[in-house]
Amino acid sequence: MTPQRIVVLGGTGFVGSYLAPRLAADGHRLILLSRNREQHRELTVLPDIVIRSADVYDDAVLRRHCGGADSVINLIGILNNSGRHTFQRAHVEMARRLVGICKAAGVQRLHQMSSLNAGAGQSQYLKTRGEAETLVKVSSLNWTIYEPSVIFGPGDGLVTRFTNLLRKMPVLPLARATSRMAPTYVGDVVEAIARCVADDNLATRRSFELYGPQVLTLGEIVRAIRDAAGLRTSILPLPDSLGRWQAQIAGMLPGKPFSFDNFLSLGTDSVGSADGYAALGIVPQLFTAWLPRIILGTPRQHRLDLSRQNFRHRRA
C-alpha cells in the first residue's frame, strides 16, 4: 500500500474523529478541513494529521487545499436544516462543487459518505443524499460511496442521546417505534473506508451498504439502551398522528432534538440487502454488545486512543 495525501471534509465530526487516527496508522498524511480548528486540537497530536481552518463552502479555499491531494474524503452531512446549512447545500451542492473542484485540482479519487437507502422515502435527508450520490456516480472520478445504517459508538448521537433522555424523563414518548434499522458500529464503518482507501482495485466505482448484524425496531433499540443503563423509564410508542405533532413541536426547540424530517426518515427502514462488509472481509459488531461501554462514557482523548489501538490493521 502506498501512503497517500488525503484531504478530509467533515474530518473532525463523529466518524472523522475515528477515521483520522485509523488512516494515520496506515501511514497516510491527512489534512482535515474544519471551521473550528481550536476545538479539535487533540487530533493534531497524532502523526501525519494536520487540521486547517477552512470554509469548505468557499470554492477558492477548497480548491487550494485539494491541490496536490491523492484523494478526497467527503464526510459532510447534516440531519436537519439550520439557517444557511440546508440539506440541499450540505449534500447536493457540496457534491456538485466537490466533483468539479477535484477535476480542476487533478484529484481523481473521491470517497463519498452517504446513507443506506439514499434517495428513498419522503424525507429531504434521504432525497438529497440520493441526489448527491447521482452527481458523484455520473462523474468521471474514481469514486467509492459508503451507505451506512444508523451509526453507533462512544460519543454517538444515538445511544448517548437516548441515554440522556431516558435519565431525564419518567416516560419517554417515542414516535415511529416500529421503524426498523440495523445499527452499525463506527469502528466497522471506519475500517471499511480504510480498506477502500488502501485498495483502489477493490473499491473503485462501487457503493457499499454498511449495516450491522442485528435488525431492531427503534422501540427495541431504546428499550435495550434503557436496560443497559439500569433505568426504569417507561417507553410510550406513539401513533403516527401524535408522532407528527411531537416532531413538529420538537423541531421548533433549540437544537431540534427531533424534527419533522427526522420523522419522515424513520418512515424508511434503515436495513440493507447487499452486505458491503462481507465484500470487504469485515465481520460487523453487535449493537447490544457495545451498549455498556458506550453508556459508561469515554472521554474524547480515550476514544481516539482506543480507535488507534483497536482498528490498526484489524482483519476479520
What is shown here, in short?
43% of the residues lie in helices and 17% in strands. The chain is built from 13 helices and 13 strands.
Account of the 3D structure:
The protein is α/β, with parallel strands linked by helices and about 325 residues long. It has a domain at about 5-150 and about 185-210 and about 270-285 and about 300-310: Rossmann fold, CATH 3.40.50. Helix content is about 45%, strand content about 15%. The chain contains 13 helices and 13 strands. The chain has helices spanning about 15-25, 60-65, 85-105, 125-135, 160-170, 185-200, 200-205, 220-230, 240-250, 260-265, 275-280, 285-295, 300-310, and strands spanning about 5-10, 30-35, 50-55, 70-75, 110-115, 140-150, 150, 170-175, 180, 185, 205-210, 215, 235-240. The strands form four sheets. The protein has a seven-stranded parallel β-sheet, sandwiched between helices. Strands 7-10 form a two-stranded parallel ribbon. Strand 5, helix 4 and strand 6 form a beta-alpha-beta unit. Helix 1 (about 15-25) packs across helix 6, helix 1 packs across helix 13 and helix 2 packs across helix 3. It is globular, with a radius of gyration of 19 Å. Residues about 310-315 have low confidence and may be disordered.
Question: What labels would you give this structure?
Answer:
316 residues, alpha/beta, Rossmann fold, seven-stranded parallel β-sheet, two-stranded parallel ribbon, NAD(P)-bd_dom_sf, protein-containing complex binding, Complex I NDUFA9 subunit family protein, NAD(P)-bd_dom
Biggest pleated sheet = 7 strands, parallel
Tally of helical runs: 13
Number of strands: 13
**Low-confidence parts, pLDDT < 50 over ≥5 residues?**
310-316
CATH homology superfamily name of one domain:
NAD(P)-binding Rossmann-like Domain
Tell me roughly what share of residues is in helical segments. 40-55%
Name the helix and strand elements from N-terminus to C-terminus, one letter apiece: EHEEHEHEHEEHEEEHHEEHEHHHHH
Summed over residues and divided by their number, the pLDDT gives a mean of: 91
Q: Architecture of one domain, CATH level 2?
A: 3-Layer(aba) Sandwich
Give me the CATH fold name of one domain.
Rossmann fold
The portion of residues forming beta strands comes to 15-25%
